[in-house]
């Protein structure tokens, strides 16, 4: 993995992925040590003029919940209209405490909160396109209209929502950087290794929060 120093400019954007209670220790779908990134991201965000926060935001009977499928358990995989789908514990249900941002997340100048996973029958890992790979969240339009050209990604989980967001941003022509120390992963069936291979294939670089000035 490569580390480099990058100077942040006013056409860069920090996308803070899913820093929600359910993805932190004690939450319904906790990413191990997920809360450790909160102070790192708070400090990092102060160096960016442009910050977007994302929020996983599911209806109560969402297709990605094992509880929505008779006889299925969390982490089983099922086949759905758009391919295979991992089933998760119920998490980030709209307007519940689990869906709220971690109480210590403090980025008052964030310009946009983008919510994803609201369609009952489509999950959404990427903050750009839902898992059918066709339904846009609107983030792409926002970044383009604002003239933002480099996307820095931080948050949870490294090997799902950060991964798919980074891949989509790259495919849409943005320069993409993953702030590695500001992410934590969950590692379901080798997903950490798959993510690292994908980032290598797509030449998506890692940076460290302390190297962003
Ligand atoms: Zn979700």
Molecular structure report:
It is a single chain. The chain has 213 residues and is α/β, with parallel strands linked by helices. Helix content is 19%, strand content 21%. It is built from four helices and eight strands. The chain has helices at 37-45, 139-145, 158-171, 191-201; strands at residues 12-17, 51-56, 77-80, 83-86, 112-116, 150-156, 175-184, 206-207. The strands form two sheets. The chain has a six-stranded parallel beta sheet. It is globular. The protein starts with 11 loop residues before the first strand and ends in a 6-residue tail after the last strand. The protein binds zinc ion (ZN). Zinc ion binds next to loops.
Radius of gyration: 16 Å
Encode the helix/strand succession as letters: EHEEEEHEHEHE
- What's the story with the biggest beta sheet? 6 strands, parallel
Helix content: 10-25%
Count of alpha/pi helices = 4
Structural class: alpha/beta
Percentage of residues in strands: 15-25%
List keywords for this structure.
alpha/beta; globular; six-stranded parallel beta sheet; 213 residues; single chain; binds zinc ion; two-stranded antiparallel sheet
Furnish the topology, listing elements before pairings.
Blueprint: E1 12-17, H1 37-45, E2 51-56, E3 77-80, E4 83-86, E5 112-116, H2 139-145, E6 150-156, H3 158-171, E7 175-184, H4 191-201, E8 206-207
Parallel strand pairs: 1-2, 1-6, 2-5, 6-7, 7-8
Antiparallel strand pairs: 3-4
Helix pairs in contact: 3-4
Bound molecules: zinc ion.
Describe what is shown at a glance.
The protein is an alpha/beta fold and 213 residues long. 19% of the residues lie in helices and 21% in strands. The radius of gyration is 16 Å and the shape is globular.
């Amino acid at each position: 993995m490569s580390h480099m120093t990058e100077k942040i400019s006013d056409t860069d954007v920090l996308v803070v992925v899913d820093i929600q209670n359910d993805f932190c220790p004690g939450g319904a779908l906790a990413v191990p040590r997920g809360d450790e990134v909160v102070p790192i991201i708070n400090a990092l965000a102060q160096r960016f003029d442009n910050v977007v926060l994302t929020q996983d935001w599911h209806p109560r009977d969402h297709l990605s919940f094992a509880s929505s499928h008779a006889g299925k358990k969390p982490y089983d995989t099922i086949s759905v209209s758009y391919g295979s789908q991992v089933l998760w514990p119920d998490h980030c249900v709209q307007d519940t405490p689990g869906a709220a941002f971690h109480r210590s997340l403090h980025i008052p100048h964030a310009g946009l909160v983008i919510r994803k996973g609201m369609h009952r029958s489509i999950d959404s890992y990427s903050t750009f396109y839902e898992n059918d790979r066709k339904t846009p969240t609107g983030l792409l339009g926002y970044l383009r209209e604002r003239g933002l050209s480099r996307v820095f990604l931080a948050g949870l989980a490294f090997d799902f929502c950060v991964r798919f967001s980074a891949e989509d941003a790259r495919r849409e022509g943005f320069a993409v950087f993953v702030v590695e120390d500001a992410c934590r992963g969950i590692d379901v069936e080798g997903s950490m290794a798959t993510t690292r291979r994908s980032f290598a294939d797509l030449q998506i670089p890692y940076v460290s929060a302390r190297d962003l000035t």
